[in-house]
Structures
1.
Amino acid sequence: MNKFYYTLVISVLIFSSCNTAETKTEEKVEKIIVSESVYSGENGLSPTVWYQTSAENKAIYLQTYLFAKLMLSENLKKKYKKPVAVVTDIDETVLDNSPYNARLAKTGKMYTNESWDAWVNTKKAEALPGAVDFFMFAKSKKVEVFYISNRTNNTLEATMENMQRLGFPNIDKKYFLLKTDKSDKTARRDSISKNYDIILFLGDNMTDFTEEFANRDTTDFGTAVVQKYKADIGTRFIVFPNPMYGEWEKAAFRNDYGKSDIEKQKALKSSIKDVY
Ligand SMILES: [Mg+2]
């Protein structure tokens, strides 16, 4: 349900109509239903349509993976002390989960861990354009590939089976660092850095690169942190689009998922400007 209905006004409407023999007056009480929009799964409708159907989205993935190849080749020209690796997120970076968001948008339901895991366990996610080709390219250049994802560890087997079907490299538990306790990926990144020089990170959420993008400033929504990492964006951090969900949405809720659905919708509206 996108709309929360409540009765604001009861108006009395008097209708007069003429019959052949008599004039009959009907009194009708009609509730005028006024709606106030609330945050729900239906909020994801337009973003999901864009993500799933637009040629633009497919082109952006191809373009970004092409750029990732160029930067990987460029970064490989430098000297490193350790073996080199790339670290990538999974969801909306290499796998397309828009069918899950389509289900939310169509039913108005909100994300839950249970429904998400159920989707993951179908193993029906498809590869995003350019993804398999890029990671095979990395492997061909002797760059190790690690997957850091906040999919829960109990979906590891399903995730690996899904990605094996699609032709991704390194389908082995030692290359998959899923979520065991916390969403913060820092410790998992650090564990790879002990043995590898990570020459490229790929993700659709800025927290795939640094935790400094978690709990963003509620006035600039992380813009200052983007400026701080300007030299890394595009050179070490390869960013993909995700208008369906992400840390950006949490920031728009002022980092409070506990808000009521009406308050969430108000927070979304108050996060954008129409200054003109
Ligand atoms: Mg992701």
2.
Amino acid sequence: MATIRFIREGVDIQCKTGENLRDFVIREKLQLYGLKGMLGNCGGAGQCSTCFVSIEGGSKNSLSPLTSVEEEKLKNRPKNWRLACQTLINSSAVILTKPQSPPSNLEELKEKSNNKKLSR
Ligand code: FES
């Protein structure tokens, strides 16, 4: 088991290791997509670039390595961004959904997150 902390939503949710991050977020009924992705997404095929998340904490190997699809699609994005549909969960991590439209109180949310221990 692993714990994924969602900074924006202020929740920690347990999941199975090896689980696909997009599938997990959708199953937990959290909002993965911004407006563009809600209007249309590729269903996890790595084609639409709408399932962005940023990785804000965890260990170096908390998530699977970048896929070749991500290397292409994320080349002009921040280094800590991933496509949720291409990402498998190896161990606990801290994630921001929809980093393309960060909440106005992001620094406050990050500080709150940093002050809580993440269960492994
Ligand atoms: S859902 Fe389309 S790239 Fe991830």
